[in-house]
Design a protein that fits this description.
The protein is α+β, with helices and mostly antiparallel strands and 288 residues long. The protein has helices at residues 44-51, 84-94, 100-110, 126-137, 158-168, 181-187, 205-210, 215-220; strands at residues 4-13, 19-29, 32-37, 58-64, 69-71, 144-148, 173-178, 190-195, 198-204, 226-234, 237-242, 245-249, 261-265, 275-279, 281-287. The protein is elongated.
Amino acid sequence: MAKSVVVEDLYMRYFGGYLGVDMATFSINGDGVFAIYGKAQSGKSTVLRCIAGLEKYQGKIELSEIKDIVYSFDTKSLKMYSTVLENLLIPLKLRGVENAEDIALSRLKKYGIEDLKDKKVRELSLDEKSIVVIARCFERDADLYLLDDVLKNIDDRHDEILNILKDDVKGKMVVFATSNIDDAFSVSDTVSIMAYKKYIQRGTKEELLKCPKSRETLMALKNSGVINTELKNDDKGYYVEVSNLRFDVNEPISNIYVGKEISLSIVNDEIYKDVYFDKSTDYVISKR
């Protein structure tokens, strides 16, 4: 029987009433990377914590053929007054793994931080601490790996560490949550979108651009391509529609373009701000 994760109507509130996730439903089948994109406070971290069994929740989570889970706690989980090598050795020795030190050293070497092995974690930069966390995640085999925005604090070596991580996840069942849409599509051909604590949709970059189910999906894909659509007008003015989402044109534009196909480029970084389309000149479009 193949490994699987089934999440149905997942709902969770933190102490004090703060909403963590609102009725998320999806399934993961077999090995491979299941990428989830969402901005801060979108609910993606809560989903991972619920799957890991770290939070009480309502709804259903079914794990089939999954007994051992690795969860990527953030840098605060590292023992600050222990060395980098000791931090990698602790989980291995607790499980009685043979050749623990050889394994730990090989992990440090793979991520290019073997020269830090005798340094106390408190002496490291945030970049370096984050790399230690990733190196530790894959030092032993597990049925499921839950990676919670592990690359967000890595700047100088981001692309290099991403490529090493992509090698580590091969042949493994991984849920990769990230606030970087480019990282999401780098590790997986299909990506799930979360926003405002809700699971929105999943698809390839082309599928999400062709049929977005929310404005948040379009905003996430701002630099991922150009949408071709028809310019329309009504008593409220000029507008375009993408998958039943209306975008108003708030700059003067000639009637000669009405009924003709134009290119809508998603370029703005923030949700519910302006986006633009290009037709020899950039015309500003605002969302209704």
